Structures are given as C-alpha cells and as structure tokens.
Amino acid sequence: MWFLIGSGLIGAGLFLSLRSLLPYLSAKRTGVIQSRGARKTRIERGTEPDRFKALAKQRLAGLWPGLACIAAGLGWLAYNFWALSIISQPA
After folding, report:
1. What does the alpha-carbon distance between residue 67 and residue 13 come to, in Å, rounded to a whole number?
2. Phi, psi angle pair for 42, to nearest 5°
3. CA within 13 Å, CB half, 90
4. pLDDT tens, 49-68?
C-alpha cells in the first residue's frame, strides 16, 4: 500500500508539472501563449510583450506544486525502502 502512495504522488506530480511545463516550452518556441479559462485568448510575444512575460512567469510558477508532489513521493518511497532494509536485517 505504501508503494502505491509513493508512486501515485510521483505520477500526480508529473501530471501537474507537465501541465504547466509543456505550454511554457511551446510558448517559448513559438512566441504565442494561450490564457487559461473559458475564453482562451492568444497572446503573442510581439504584440503584447508584458502580458506574454507575465503569463509565461505564471506557467513557471505552476511547476512548484507538481515538483513538491514528486519530491514528497520520492521521499516517501526512500523512507519506506530504508525502513524495510532496517526491518529485514537479521538480529
């Protein structure tokens, strides 16, 4: 059960991270970013550089919850593997 918790945290972290990272990388490459929400608007780097920069910064800030989940999952798994190695040692 503990393995599922750790691997689930890592999977959720990857999902959350890639959800922000892929649009950011695409915006850096193409120069066009789309806002989130019901009415998605295209913001081009050439026409609205300040707004483009602010939205790109928000996309990077959106990486932190995913990275935190990945770190928590790796920490959880490392702790449990360490605990198993301590328990399984002969006395």
Report:
1. 6
2. -85, 130
3. 0
4. 999 999 999 999 999 999 99
